[in-house]
Amino acid sequence: MHVDTRIESIDVKLAKLNAELTTYQQRLARMRDGPGKSAIKSKALKVLQQRKLYESQRDQLQQQSWNMEQAGMLQDNLKNTMTTVEAMKTTTKELKKQYGKVNIDKIEKLQDEMADLMDMGNDIQESISRSYDVPEDVDEAELDAELEALGEEVEMGMGEGEMEGMPSFMVDQSVPPTFVDEPPEHGKVKEAAG
Cys staple from 58: which of 10, 39, 100, 135, with CB 3.0 to 4.6 Å? Predict the structure, then answer.
């Protein structure tokens, strides 16, 4: 018989005994002292003893049930622990295999090569973006003064070689300068000396 079923059976018996005791108590409360009251009191005491015995049995069964539940929980926890340990072993084994394939020296070499390539790329970008014939330390005050002078030049009129309404620095320079003796001939390439 299952322990919980036995506990329920005892609870039913205890309910009957409690009802019987209540009846005896009510009768005793209405009776006067005498042999009848003593007989009922004697029956009530026997019922009370039975109740105590059943309560003791119920407590023992409840403790057994609790102990079995705890044992079951411990068993479940142990199974879970074993499953976890097995999973950890498998994972560790796989990680060792994977990390065994990794060569840290190769990774460091790749990192160094990447750093070198990045430095080379930066050098190339720096070289390409270099400005020609523009002083790097141009004073802002000098630029303001030059801009103001250009404005005054435009106000006063045009300088030598200027087109109408356009300052000399903006005039088209595709016309050969005056110091060139002959204009270039198209289709003829001179060979370099040497």
Answer: 10
Residue 17 has pLDDT above 50, yes or no: yes
Tell me the DSSP string of the chain: --HHHHHHHHHHHHHHHHHHHHHHHHHHHHPPSSHHHHHHHHHHHHHHHHHHHHHHHHHHHHHHHHHHHHHHHHHHHHHHHHHHHHHHHHHHHHHHHHHHT--HHHHHHHHHHHHHHHHHHHHHHHHHT--SS--SS--HHHHHHHHHHHHHHHHH---TTPPTTS-GGGS---SPPTT-SSPPPTT--PPPP-
Q: Say yes or no to pLDDT of 127 above 80.
A: yes
pLDDT at 167: 58
Quick check: 39 and 48 in contact, CB under 8 A? no
Closest CA to 169 of 180, 177, 161: 161
Query: Is the pTM value of this prediction over 0.85?
Result: no
- The answer to whether residues 47 and 17 touch, using CB atoms and an 8 Å cutoff, is yes
Give dist(CA 64, CA 61) in Å, integer: 5
pLDDT digits (tens, 9 = 90+) for 43-91: 889 999 999 999 999 999 999 999 999 999 999 999 999 999 999 999 9
CA distance 96 to 99: 5
